[in-house]
Specification:
Elements lengths: L44 H4 L5 E4 L4 E3 L2 H5 L6 H7 L4 E4 L5 H8 L4 E5 L2 H9 L4 E3 L10 E6 L10 H10 L1 E11 L6 E10 L2 E2 L3 E6 L1 H10 L2 E8 L3 E7 L5
Parallel strand pairs: 3-4, 3-6, 4-5, 6-7
Antiparallel strand pairs: 1-2, 1-8, 7-12, 8-9, 8-10, 11-12
């Protein structure tokens, strides 16, 4: 889970959107194999406990993470995301759970999913339903909406794979709500480390995606943009394209 701030434009020569070949559908694999247990700590754990943090990318770009927003109540541009949610929601990379809490208060069933023990503990403290699990491990149910807020489209460093995963969790007619980079043209993929006063976390694959790049990646895997929001933060809502059903 992360919240990216304003990201610089990627340097010339950065690779563009790519798709994985031979990807397993979520929940498949050898019969009887259980999903791997989440690691006891993640690169984001200190920030998910409230420590100021910054992300340092492998291309040298640095971004101060919006830790204060993660731990606060949902506010400001979060309202656009919340208003788009009219039925059950799963929040992938939910962090401390502010969106899950806000949706629950609105009477909308919501589940947060995060691999971080720190995130899961904070969610439970706030009364948010949470599943501590890798986003690509089996997740129960089908959902009207899947959230990828706070820059979480970057998780795993392959936005196409993550969007496929999100779309597989949807009920027919459901949507994926994605927070994109403030720069619509942004596209970058590589590795990054989260730095706090306690030191640097492990290197992890990451990506940065603007609204224009998201539209291209989404179209390549059968999703279409049905709504957007532009403000201090930017969002896109995706649905399975009619031609893909």
């Amino acid at each position: 889970m992360t919240a990216a701030g304003a990201e610089p434009r990627q340097p010339d020569g950065a690779r563009g959107p790519t798709l994985l070949r031979g990807e397993e559908r979520p929940g498949t694999g050898k019969a009887g194999r259980r999903p791997k247990s989440p690691r006891s700590s993640t690169a984001f754990d200190a920030a998910l406990r409230g420590a100021p943090a910054r992300m340092v990318r492998s291309d040298g770009a640095e971004v101060v993470l919006a830790v204060g927003r993660w731990h606060a109540d949902a506010a400001d541009d979060d309202g656009w995301l919340l208003d788009r949610c009219t039925g059950p929601v799963v929040d992938l990379g939910c962090g401390p759970g502010r969106l899950v809490v806000a949706l629950t208060r609105r009477g909308i069933p919501a589940l947060g999913v995060d691999v971080s023990a720190a995130a899961a503990a904070r969610c439970r403290e706030r009364g948010a339903a949470v599943l501590r699990r890798d986003l690509f491990a089996p997740i129960p149910g089908r959902w009207d909406h899947v959230l990828l807020a706070d820059g979480n489209i970057g998780i795993g460093g392959d936005p196409a794979r993550l969007l496929r995963r999100a779309a597989a969790l949807l009920r027919p007619g459901g949507t994926v709500l994605v927070e994109t980079d403030p720069d619509p043209a942004a596209w970058w993929a590589g590795t990054a480390r989260v730095h706090t006063a306690q030191g640097a976390g492990q290197s992890l694959p990451w990506a940065v995606v603007g609204a224009d790049a998201l539209r291209v990646v989404a179209a390549a895997i059968g999703l279409e943009v049905v709504a957007t929001h532009s403000g201090p933060r930017r969002f896109s809502e995706l649905r399975v394209a009619a031609s893909s059903t």
